Amino acid sequence: MELRDVTIADSGTEPAPLRTLARHEPLVVTPATPVREVLYRFSQDEEDAAVIADSASGLPLGLVTLRDMLHVVSFEHADLDDPIANHMLGAPLTLTADASAHRAKVTMAKRGARHLILTETDGRLFGLVTQADLLGLKAGGAEALIASISRARDLRAMMLAVDAVRRRGAELFRAGMGAESLCQWMSGLNDLIVMRIIELIEDEFDLPAVPWCWMVFGSEGRLEQTFATDQDNGLLFVPPNAVNTQSLRECFIPFAQAVNEALHQCGFEQCRGEIMASNPECCLSAAEWRQRFMDWLQIPDPEAVLRSTIFCDFRPLYGNQEPVDQLRAWLVREAPKHPRFLHALAAQSLEISPPLGWAGQFSFDRNRDYPHTLDLKLQGARFFMDAARLWALAEGVWATNTAERLRAVGQARQRQAEELAAEIESFHLIQGFRIAQQLQNPDRDAVNRVDPEQLKNPPAERVELS
C-alpha cells in the first residue's frame, strides 16, 4: 500500500456522540406502505434507505435499502402493491443516539453494515447514520485487516492478524499519521481483535443464559491504546436474583481466564495489577459494580481513589451492552453529587509534580535502570488524563476518551477555543513521543521513558490513507 505526502481529509477524531452525525431526517414509512410508494419516495427524496417504524409509538421495526428493493422487484418479482413490511430487514443494527462514534464504527465494521439506526433511550427512533457519516476506521488499509480478523478461526490466525495490525500501524505512524488518529485507528482494530477472540473462546464454554458483557478499562476504555499495552478488563453479568450471583461468577471465571490467556498469547500483556475479568474482583454482577463505584464515591480514601481512576474509564465491548450503558448513565448522574470524592481525585493528581526544576530544567526521578529519562506517561500524559477524567465526572460527561472529554467539558464551561486546542495538541504531542519510543524500544519498563535531549518532533500529520 503506497503512502504519499498529502493532507489527511479525515483525522479519525470523535468530538461528539452519534446524534450529532445524523445529518438529516431519515426517510420513515409505516409497515403497511406499499413497495411502489417506497420506491417513489426513494427517487423523490434521493435516499438509499428507509426506516420502517410504528406510527403510534415511533419505535423502529425494520430497515429497507434501495439496493435491496431493486433486487426483490427485478429478480424476485415482488408485487409493487406488497406492504413494505414483507421485504424489510427486521431487527436492524441499532444503537442509542448518545453512543460514541467509535462504537458505531466497530459495530458496523464487524457486521458489514452500511446503515445504523439511532434511537433515544426509550427506544423511539432518532435518526439514521451511514458509513459515509463514519469515515475513519476503514482508512489506512484497514479493510483487509478487518477481513483477516473476521476470517480467523483459531488463535494462531488471530496472532497473525494482530501482528499485521501492529506492523501496519507502525507504517502509518512513520509515514506521518498523527497520534490521535492512530490511537483511534488502532483502538478500533484492537476492539475487533478482542471481540473475535472472545467469540472463539465463547464457543468452547457453556455460559449461563443471563445478560453479560465484557468491559474494558484504562487506555483501552479511553480509546488510547498504542503499541505497548496491557489488559485492563472486567465482566458484568445480570443474575435473575441476588442469590445466584456467586454461582454465576464461578461459571464465568473459567471463561474469563481462557480469554485473558488468549489475549496474552496475542500480545496483550496480562495486567500486573490483575485488573482482568478472570479476577473475581473484576467479575461482578451489575448490582455489585454499582455498589463498588458507590463505595468509592462515598468513602474516598487514597487507596480507593487510586483504584477507581482506571475503572472510571470503562466502556462495554462484547455481549449485552445495555447493562454497562446503564451503569455509565448512573455514574454520570451520581458522581457530581460527591464533591469529597472529586476533591480527593484532584488532590491525588496534584501529588504528581511536573518533571521541572526551579529554574525550568528537567527534573529526573533517579531511576537506576533508566537514568536521565522522563516517564512520559506518569509525568506527562497523565496530567491530561487525570484532569479530563475529573472534569468529565464533575460535569456529567459520558465520554471516556481524553481529548473527547476535554472538548465536551470545554464546551460546557465555555472555555476559550484556542486554549482548549493548545491543551489537546500538547497531549497528543506527548502521545506521539510515547508511540515513537514504543516503536524503538520494546522493553515493557522503558516504553514510556525518554531522554529529553534525544527528543525529536514526531512526524506531521500528513499521509494519504490508501
Concise summary:
The chain is α/β, with parallel strands linked by helices and 466 residues long. It is 46% helix and 11% strand. β2 (49-53) and β3 (60-65) form a beta hairpin.
Poorly predicted runs are: 1-15, 459-466
In whole angstroms, the N-to-C terminal distance is: 7 Å
Helix content: 40-55%
Task: Specify the overall morphology.
Answer: globular
Radius of gyration: 24 Å
CATH 2nd-level architecture of the domain at 18-134: Roll
| CATH topology (fold) name of the domain at 18-134 | CBS-domain
Please report which band the strand proportion falls in: under 5%, 5-15%, 15-25%, 25-35%, 35-45% or over 45%: 5-15%
H/E element order: EHEEHEEHEEHHHEHEHEHHEHHEHHHE
Mean pLDDT: 86
The tally of strands reads: 13
Per DSSP, the total helix count is 15
Tell me, what is the CATH class of the domain at 18-134? Alpha Beta
CATH superfamily of the domain at 18-134: CBS-domain
The major β-sheet equals: 4 strands, mixed
Strand order of the largest sheet: 1-2-3-4
Backbone structural class:
alpha/beta
